[in-house]
Structure formats: structure tokens, C-alpha cells
Amino acid sequence: MTTPQHDSHSLGNVHNTVTTEGKTGWRKILSFLGPAYLVSVGYMDPGNWATDLAAGSQFGYKLIWVLLLSNLIALLLQNLAVRLGIVRGLDLAQASKHTYPPFVNFCLFILAQIAIIACDLAEIIGMAIGLNLLFGLPLIWGVSITLLDTLLLLFLLNKGMRKLEGFIISLIFIVGLAFLAQMFIVQPNVIDIAKGFIPTKLNSTSLYLAIGIIGATVMPHNLYLHSSLVQTRKIDRSEQGIKSAIRYNFWDTTIALNLAFFVNAAILILAASAFFGRGFHEVAEIQDAHKLLTNIFGKLAPALFAIALIAAGQSSTVTGTLAGQIIMEGHLNLRIAPWLRRLLTRLLAIIPAFFTILHFGEEGLGKLLILSQVILSLQLGFAIVPLIHFTSDKKRMGKFATSVPLQVLAWVFATLIVGLNVRLVIQEIQTWAAASPGSSNLVHYIISPIAVGIGLLLVYVFLRPILYKHVNQPIHVPHGIATALDNLEAISYKQIGITIDFSKNDQDTIRHALMQGGKTAHYNLIHVVETAGARYYGKQVMDSETQSDVDNLDIYVDTLVKLGYKAEAKIGYGSPATAIAQIVKDTHIDFVVMGSHGHKVLKDLIFGTTVDSVRHKVNVPVLVVKPQQKRKDI
């Protein structure tokens, strides 16, 4: 199979990898279950814990209605994201790229990236606190250890989408069980809980917390993530098949998000019952909550609390990386290795966590957690507004465009979120300006203009699809529009490059190359010497390893020549990908055949993926030959 130069699929390595066709009954339902559970972990991450604990300890059960409202908003918006992904085969970032100019897309990418860093910050702090509570590990070490989950993500992605989903669901199960057990220990008042579902007026403190709860629940990166994850299912593209996929994913989303609501409500109820009811009204810190649980209920409840916190943080960190990959590829058409993407995001989030611990002490982490959730809420409008526009567009969505009542409800929710955020921003700017006379210049000349600029960007994002609705733009479909197949003659390659690494895969690689060119093509057997000497001295080096490689390559060439093929040896030095690309260019090779090592996770990380690097460096077709697995007789 020839490797494409640009893969337009969202999360291309797992796109359409889970088949749903040809299945019936419960097997059909199970084949669709999964994407929403990956999304739902964002609804029960450590950021939610901080806002829910603060809300429960300060206001008792009074803000449960905000949680319920957030869950209803999330249900609607996640289902719109599902619809976009299934019908148009585009994730939210890709759809934005097709609609808005490059500069606006870059701004949307920056804002979405800030949201993902804010989310990742919550996971870092949650994991560090969880390790501290369970094992007594200092927070600064806990924050450092969170760098290692890059390796966990690589391992899970390498195992495939279903294994990743299974891992996440098992962590959610741990979190759910831990809180179910804690509810039996705490024994909350059911009547008071029921009263909490009645909406009440919000003052300035409860407004800040309410917006934090909405930001922690309806996460912008989850909309990008869900619109992409549903595309991992291979579905029947007929009208009935799309309808069926939307229906199954609706149930997947409803079940997963209601489970997340149960966890969030459990945290708030735990805080209200254990702390507010006993006069502890300022428990915003997760550490304080753990300490008080120890004093009130003994050792079991706090241990369950810490285990659930670690599970929630670890599961959320995996999905945050996937979302980061989606927004970078979608908005900027820029693709980098998942481990590098993960490392960049994590480092950008670790810096403020380190700074907070060093300068404000461990007590500052709780405030940083809640601030991260408010930042998420402020970014919501930039994900929600385009999403509603895209799913309401009858020209591109056809029969699957959202109905008018749903559109109205979605716009009401969007207006509510944006309105609350505008009120909060104005309130915070006024507070900063009044805090000290010296800070007023900073507010008036830097913070206020930035806030106004971001507000104008949101207005543009809202107006652009309306003003340019009838402009004759090409309709972007998942794989482009089919063109006439008027030339299907076999391509004749004249110069074929074969990469050689003196492994057992060489024979298969050479066989596949000979199948492409027969005895008319010229074969260039390429081997790269990677010794330290070769990297520094290049062609001047002639150590024993280099001489051995040259001799071995000549044996291959002589064998091919005796069989009647035209072949010659090409030796490169230093970095394999760069050397191969240079030989391809200098020799005018028009087709490359490469053997894949079949490395797993750590080996790919250590040795690098030469195949991946080469295909991005050359402008000719690349055939990747994977080693054949021996079939086991059953």
C-alpha cells in the first residue's frame, strides 16, 4: 500500500478501525460504545473535583441545579459534535478550517490550545495531590512524575482504539465504585439533595463557582474530541446507516455523561454532607477534604477518595492529548508525533504548576485548579458557536441538519454561557482595577484591550457563517469529490530504491520491490551507516562496521545481478531518514520500498520511526512492507 503524503482523516491512525457493519443486537450496540466514555472522563477530572468541593462546602446542596444544567448543556452539545463527525466526516477543527480564514483559524487554535493546557494543568495537580495523599509523595515530585504518562499514552495508542477505550472505562469504573462506597459512608440527606435541584439566585462568589462548574463540565476540547472519535467507527454511509450511527451514539453519549453527572454530584454531595453540614464552609482544597474525611470517617473514605483522584487524573490526561492532536491537525494542518505532542502540552502545563508550588506553596494549587476551569469556560464560546453553525447548515448537512427547536435550545445555552462569561470578565477586571492604584494601568492598557479583542473575535466567529452563507464555496466532504477515472494504465517505475537494514525483513522488502519494476527497472539498494563516526565524518569514515555493511550490501547486489536484475549499492551516512531522502533526490528515484521493523512503543520512541520521517521528506510514492506474522493453526 502506498503511503499518502497528506492524510486528511481526523486521528488518521485509528480512523475507521472499529467495524460496526454486519453486527446485530447487543454486538451492534457494543461496537458503538466507547467514544463517549473517553469524552466523559473530561467531565470527572480533578478540575471538577475542585469546583464541586468548593461549591458543596460553601453552599451545601444549593448548586446541584448548576451541575444538572451543565450536564443537559453537555448532552446537547456533545450530540451536535457526534452529528458533525458522522455526517460530514470532519471534526470541529477541520470544519472550522474550511469556514474561517487562516488568521482566525490560528487564533482559534491558540485559544483551544490554552484550554487544553488549562485542562492538563488540572490533571497534573490532581495526580500530584492523589499521589501525595495516598503515598505521602511531595507535590513537587508528584508533578514531575506526571511526565511519565507520555509513555502510557504511547503504549495505549499502539494497542488500538478498543484497548484504549477499555483502559479508560476501567478507570471510570474505579472512580464510580469509590464514590458509591463513600456515599454509603457519608449518608447524605436525600430531601436536602432534592431541594438542591431548584434554581437559586447567584451572588458574585457563587457565580464564579457556577462558571467554574460549567467550564469544568462542558469542556471545549471534548467537542473537538467527540467529533473525531465517532469517526473511528466504520459505518454504512447510506442514509439509513448514518441515521443508525447517530442513534447508537446518542445512547452512548447519554449513558456516559449521566455516569459523569453521578460522579460530579457525588463529589458535591460528599462535600455538602461531610463539610458544609458540619460547619466547614471553606473546603476548596482537595488536601483539606482528604484530611477532614480522615478525621470524620476514619481511613477507608479518604483512601477511596485518593484512589479515585489518581484514576480520574490519569484517564483525563490521555484524552487531553488526543484533543491536542485533533486541534493542531485540524486548524493548522500540522502533524507531529503523538509523544512529542503530549510532551509539549505537559511541559506547558507543568511550568505554572511548578511556579505555583514554589512561590505560593501547596495552598495555591486549589485556587489554580479552579482558575483553570474558569479559563475552560471562557473558551467555550469559540467551540460552541461554530459547532451550532456547522450542524445547522442544510447545504452541507442535508437531511441531518439539526431541527429548528434544537437550534433554538443550543443558541439559548450558548447565549447563557457567553453572557455569564462576559459578566465574569467585567467583574474580574473591575476587581483587579480596584485592588491597587498601581494595577489600573496594567488593566486599562493591556488586559482590557486583550479582552475586547477576544470579544470581537467571538463576534466575527458568530457572524462569518451567516454573512457568507450563500457564497458559492466548495462543499468539503470527508474524502473529496470523486473524479473521472480516465487513466488506469499501470505505472512503470525506472529507478526503484530499496532500504536495507540486514535484518530478516530484507528478503520480503526486495521481493516486493521486484514485483513493482520487474527486470526493466533499475534497483538502488540503500543502506545507512549510523555509527557515531558516520554521523561526524560521513563518507570519510571506514570503520569495521562500515566496511562490513558495504561488503554485505555488495552480496545482495551480486545476487540480484546474477538473477538478471539491474542493481547497485548506495551507502548513506548519519541520520537514516535524512540520508535516504538525499539518496532518493540525488539518484532521481521514483519509487521507494521500505521494510518496517514492527517496533512497539518504547523501541519506536528510542529508535525513532524512520518510515514516518522518510515519507515526509520525499516526494515520491513509498511502499511500506511489514514483516509477515506466522499464522497459528486453530
Automatic annotation (TrEMBL):
The chain crosses the membrane at residues 63-82, 103-129, 135-157, 164-185, 205-225, 255-276, 296-322, 343-361, 367-388, 400-422, 442-463. One of its GO terms (cellular component) is plasma membrane. It is a multi-pass membrane protein. One of its GO terms (biological process) is iron ion transmembrane transport. It holds the Pfam family Nramp. InterPro entries: NRAMP_fam, Rossmann-like_a/b/a_fold, UspA. The keyword Manganese does not apply. GO terms for molecular function: cadmium ion transmembrane transporter activity; manganese ion transmembrane transporter activity; metal ion binding; symporter activity. Keywords: Cell membrane, Ion transport, Membrane, Symport, Transmembrane, Transmembrane helix, Transport. Residues 493-626 form the UspA domain. It is found in: Cell membrane; Membrane. The keyword Transmembrane helix applies. Signal peptide: none annotated. PANTHER family: NATURAL RESISTANCE-ASSOCIATED MACROPHAGE PROTEIN 2, SOLUTE CARRIER PROTEIN FAMILY 11 MEMBER. H(+)-stimulated, divalent metal cation uptake system. NCBIfam families: nramp, Nramp_1, PRK00701.1. HAMAP family: NRAMP (MF_00221). Belongs to the NRAMP family. This is Divalent metal cation transporter MntH. The lineage of its organism: Bacteria, Pseudomonadati, Bacteroidota, Sphingobacteriia, Sphingobacteriales. The gene is mntH.
